[in-house]
Every structure is written in structure tokens, then in C-alpha cells.
Amino acid sequence: PVIPCVVSQWSAWSGCAEPCETTYRVRMRHIIQEPRNGGEACPALEERAGCVEYWTRQGTECQQSLIPASITTGGFGKARKKRAAADGSERAGYCVEFQLVAITPGCLHSQQSYTRWMHYLREGHTVCVECQHPALHSPSQHCYGDGTGSQKNQLLHWQAVGNHRCKGTWRRIRQLDTCSCPSVHSFLFI
């Protein structure tokens, strides 16, 4: 009789291969029954997926520049500031200018009203991203993904909130302690 290959269930995913780097995780399965007499061949026994761990194996936080920035439209900040001011916890923030290097096509194909701001993301443009409370983390007083500690011209990653297909890379130009971002290219760290 024809006997197809039989494999086990997938194992749990491993941790990232390296902390503080964009690397991969692995899951495995093994052969329970080898195929015989022309039976169906065995499928892949190993699968990899991308991952990033933000903590070293010693439990300390990785450098800020390795963490992808999560951004949304700057208009969201007006409502956020009102809520923060109401509870008296408003702290001064800052802005960071970035030059957009690469953008996935998913940014242009967003049709929902809450994702239309993504259409203003264009390769080569300079954008201004504000870091304000509550995204301003203690004790570092920085927003995740702001590029603090990055090398000059290092490519940094960002992800648009509300559309997982809209992401890309940018280069940090400079930090501004006083924000005066133009409204159309103004964004916000989440």
C-alpha cells in the first residue's frame, strides 16, 4: 500500500535568535512516518518567522534605535493633550524630524477614513513626529523608536498604527525641543 509521510504538530516558537536585533524565531516538527511506496513526500520540518526582542538576556532594555516607531496622525495629539492636561500630568515633549526612505505600498491602499493620513507618507519627504505624554516613557524621557542613540544615517523602522501593511524605514535628521511641525507631515509616536 501507498504510505504518505506523517509529521508531528509544530513545536512552540523559540525565542528570537539574538536579542536587540531584527532576527528570526524557529518552530520545528518531526517525521512520525516516512513515506513508502510512492507516498506523499514530507513537508518542511522547520519554519522561521521574523522577530525582535527588546530586552537583553540579562534583562536590560535594548538601545532605543532598534525598536520600530509606532506612529499615527498628528491630529490625534490634540485630543490626547486635552486628556493629559485634565489630570495634571502634562509633561513637555519634543519632536524628531525624519527623512522617509522606504514605504510599503500598503500605505497608499488604505481606504478607511481613519487611515487616510497615511497617503501623505512619501519617500524622500521630511516628516515631523511628536513625542508627548503618555508615549514619553520614564525614566528615559524618550519615545520608543525615536532613534535616540542611533548612528548617523542609520535606517530606522516605523509602523503605522491602524494598518499593519503600512510601514517603512526612515533616517533621523534632528531632534527639536520645540515642536512646530507642519500639519500635513505631522505625526505622533504611540
Automatic annotation (TrEMBL):
InterPro entries: SBSPO, SBSPON_C, TSP1_rpt, TSP1_rpt_sf, TSP1_spondin_dom. The keyword Nucleotidyltransferase does not apply. It comes from the Eukaryota. Gene3D superfamilies: Thrombospondin type-1 (TSP1) repeat. Pfam families: SBSPON_C (PF25031), TSP1_spondin (PF19028). Residues 90-183 form the SBSPON-like C-terminal domain. Signal peptide: none annotated. Keywords: Disulfide bond, Glycoprotein, Signal. Residues 5-52 form the Spondin-like TSP1 domain. The keyword Glycoprotein applies. This is SBSPO protein. It comes from Mohoua ochrocephala. The gene is Sbspon_1.
